[in-house]
Amino acid sequence: MTQPFLSIRNLRKAFGAITAVHDVTLDIPKGEFLTFLGPSGSGKSTTLYAIAGFQDPSSGNVELEGKSLLAVPSHKRNIGMVFQRYTLFPHLTVAENVAFPLRVRRRPEAEVKKKVADMLALVRLESFAQRLPGALSGGQQQRVALARALAYDPPILLMDEPLSALDKKLREEIQGEIRRIHRETGVTILYVTHDQEEALHLSDRIALFKDGRIEQTGSGEDLYLRPATDFVAGFIGNSNFLAAEHLDTKDGTATIRLADGSVVSGVRANGAFGKGQKTRLMIRPEAFGMERSPTSAELNVDIVDVAFYGERRRIVAQTATGQEIDIRPTSTAMQSHDSTQCRQVYFDPAAAFLFPA
Known about the structure:
By secondary structure, the chain is an alpha+beta fold. The protein has helices spanning 44-52, 94-104, 109-122, 138-150, 168-185, 196-202, 220-225, 230-235; strands at 6-15, 18-28, 33-37, 59-64, 67-68, 80-82, 156-160, 188-193, 205-210, 213-218, 240-250, 253-258, 263-269, 278-283, 288-289, 297-309, 312-319, 324-327, 344-347, 353-356.
């Protein structure tokens, strides 16, 4: 069995009576872009700080290439770090900021100059070398911080909410830069964010945290299309949850009765359910359509609102039980429909998921 590049084993961190991280275990291969995703207080940053050496875990271990890091001081772990705040030295030029970690390590001056030039080229800031940080935009400062973190060739780069202070357009631009830099350098990146779109855009894999534990780990596609729990289904993407009663399950697909009395067969069952058990049916907004197909299930609705979002429309509809649901068919699919007059919408039961209530 191949030894993982970075291994987190049964990591636990308590602050007095409060346990922030419960028994987190993960293996990260070399060169992977792994994102810790989750709501505030879910334990993702605490886990990152334990890897960096900023916090000592209450129990468990962190190993790099088979060697424990716990006895190694944070400044000797040789791990790069980029924070939400840029933490640049305001009195040093861009080039001097990037050179700083190299000079601390007493690298030869010729090597420092070449590395600074390489790093500024990597983040496309060659012409800004002699500027002070105060003369740069927020996005440019974050790129300098990224160049400085990579300058000494760390085996791992940790990034803690690095883009959350930027506006949406700039955030998307820097996301593209981070993806490019990851491709070009091959550095192993552990990235913390609470933004699901950012995680889906950047990551090879995502570890979704909830209450100090990892709820599910996988690619963005895995978490979106194959959620292991209703929390994953609700956190990744947009979801509708309809109350349902479980009637029967055969070969992994369930037959259920919705609250309006309609019976739906062919739903993927996440787990084992008893006859009559209360459940929740999750349907993605884009899984709804306006046309019936041979395999589709029907849902009676009243249309509350319709808004145009370019390639899709967003329809707010109300079910027979008074619950509002989100429907997002493509705009082309709506061209032959007056959506305000629709009284039924349709979905493929195989595209829906069943979870315990």
